């Protein structure tokens, strides 16, 4: 069934990105239904990160359009797209080593207000964000580490803190780039549960190589190969698709 325009959170049409003659994303059509959890998967180099960067404004498309809830956002800057309710996480951690988790979240909350992002932080101003910061830390399971410098957190805890920073922006649409990359099984399980909780009332698009994560979370999966959409459907549908099996076997034989 084709979703109506109100049901579509994010849509890419004919999206293309060339890097000096190399087509990394090739005429991609993508429809993300509001309230859904949509996974982007595909072999290494398929164009997943490039597509993410296009959707969040970190790259400008060579061709094609992107709409957020029906509004054309093609070519807008990342902050402008964020303003439309789209927030993203990154594969690489971008935390301040000496800043504590609570301070990180308070700053993220402050950045949404008219006070903007300021590095001279008045204790009094920051205190008003504390209750919400503590709620977000509890949400991602970091309450007990609120006062520990971020540099001393374990890898999975840093990723959880980054999730709290994205949540602080209260986005309607969350783009999560490999939320479980490099995690051990315990952190993966915790992250799946966390994404399930935060996906309630939101739209989530995520990239992940872990098929257990994709199968546990996604109600829709788009498979990319060499910049093109190879298949799309439910996890069960794409898993059984012979073209997808061949693409992954091809990758395994080159590993
Ligand atoms: N800035 C760039 N300049 C030139 N080529 C690039 C650039 N960024 C990505 N590419 C190329 O575009 C292709 C797609 O890369 P991309 O990182 O989007 O793939 P991916 O599916 O995210 O891969 P992975 O699963 O390994 O993260 C690759 O061949 C990559 O080398």
From TrEMBL:
Classification via SUPFAM superfamilies: P-loop containing nucleoside triphosphate hydrolases (SSF52540)
InterPro entries documented for this protein: AAA+_ATPase, ABC_AA/LPS_Transport, ABC_transporter-like_ATP-bd, ABC_transporter-like_CS, BCA_ABC_TP_C, P-loop_NTPase
Pfam families in the record: ABC_tran, BCA_ABC_TP_C
UniProt xrefs under SMART domains: AAA
A GO MF term: ATP hydrolysis activity
Domain ABC transporter per the UniProt entry, residue ranges: 10-251
Keywords: ATP-binding, Nucleotide-binding, Transport
GO cellular component: a single term: plasma membrane
Name of protein: ATP-binding cassette domain-containing protein
Organism of provenance: Georgenia subflava
